[in-house]
Amino acid sequence: MHSQKVILEVNHYYPFGMVMAGLSSKAAGGINNKYKYNGKELQNGEFSDGSGLEEYDYGARFYNHQIGSWTTADPLAEIFFDMSPYNYAANNPVINIDADGEEYILWYIDNDNKKQSINLKSWEDVDKLKDIDSKDDFARNMYTVLNYSKGEDVAEKGLTGDFVTDVVYGKGKVGQYDDKKNVLSIDPLVGIEHVKNDQMGKSTLETKGNGKATSPASIFLHEVGHFLNFKEDPAGANYRQYNPTSKIKLFDTKEEKRVIQLVENPFAIKKAAYGESPRTNHGGIPSTFATPTSTIPTGVTPQIRRMIATEKALKDAKKGSKIN
Predict the structure, then answer these.
(1) Distances in Å between the alpha carbon of 70 and those of 73, 196, 274?
(2) pLDDT tens digit sequence for 64-104
(3) Which pLDDT score, from 0 to 100, does residue 10 have?
(4) DSSP 99-161
């Protein structure tokens, strides 16, 4: 059975979203179509006097296509400090488009030291990461990270579900999801060496690992667990993470306990043959690994080395002052 559809409008756009008036047309007497450039809703004519914002609603921010700029700062501004926080599509809308709300947006630095992004909505998109040259091989390492948990409910929902987040390179740091900025940062070669429960609360200098570890790829899955919790149940996740009554021993907060016990540990048990181990606490020593899926630490992160050196120097200085 074939049914004809009514064409409401035919629009042609300049790269930043202004309509090419001479090439565009609208059906006479047709329904007003508000979803235009990139399929986003144009906010116009909503005020009683007939005026409006004349901006596109992208969900997290509004975009002014007349000047080719966001109206508020980029939540990634602290990471990509070399670009204006108001730039739309990294100032290159011919190559880049904004998210449609159902994907990861993976940001990386290319060989020309320029900020680039790729939208990941399917495993076919993930496969493209194998062919991307990027600083510190971030894109290819993320290909390994994402495929490590392929088939897991959390991994599938994070990639193909109804929510969007930015994934950025957090060099030298353990993965972390920032729910305020909706940004998941990760170094795909940094994971955690586990500690026993009696090590919790000790200084960095005194903390000893127990020889077990969580790979960088598993850390990413852990953070995706937080991302989904804050998107699917924001009130519950905020309560578990920030309410003073949610602070608990060993796991810091009820939100961390939930993710470790419901996401990270079941996955670790499935991947036991790869050396993954369940955790009994939210502690650990941030460590470097040779590959994203390795569970054998090659050393502590530079940040931890600096913290150990500082604590040791303070301890030695304190000893010296007592002797004098």
Answers:
(1) 7, 48, 45
(2) 888 888 787 776 566 555 567 777 766 777 655 655 444 68
(3) 79
(4) --SSSEEEEEE-TTS-EEEEEE-SHHHHHGGGG---GGGHHHHHHHHHHHTTT-HHHHHHHHS
SS3 236: helix
Angle made by CA atoms 191, 195, 199, in degrees to the nearest 5: 135
163's tokens: 């929510």
What 3-state class would DSSP assign to 252? strand
d(CA 306, CA 199): 20
* Distance of alpha carbon 9 from alpha carbon 20, whole angstroms: 13
* Nearest Cα to Cα of residue 149 among 180, 188, 202: 188
CA distance 49 to 72: 25
Residue type, 322: K
pLDDT in tens, 218-273: 999 999 999 999 999 999 999 999 999 999 999 999 999 999 999 999 999 999 99
Helix (H) or strand (E) run with residue 237 in it: helix 234-242
Above 80 in pLDDT, residue 156? Answer: yes
Higher pLDDT, 41 or 291: 291
Distance (Å, whole) CA 129 – CA 133: 9
189-210, pLDDT tens digit by residue?
999 999 999 999 999 999 999 9
> Mean pLDDT, to the nearest integer, of 58-68?
79
Closest CA to 105 of 87, 91, 94, 90: 90
Angle among Cα 298, 269, 125 to the nearest 5 degrees reads 75
Q: Is residue 279 within 8 Å of 194, Cβ to Cβ? A: yes
Q: Which two tokens stand for residue 22?
A: 């001479």
Sheet holding 115-120, edge to edge: 115-120, 104-109, 165-169, 183-186, 176-178
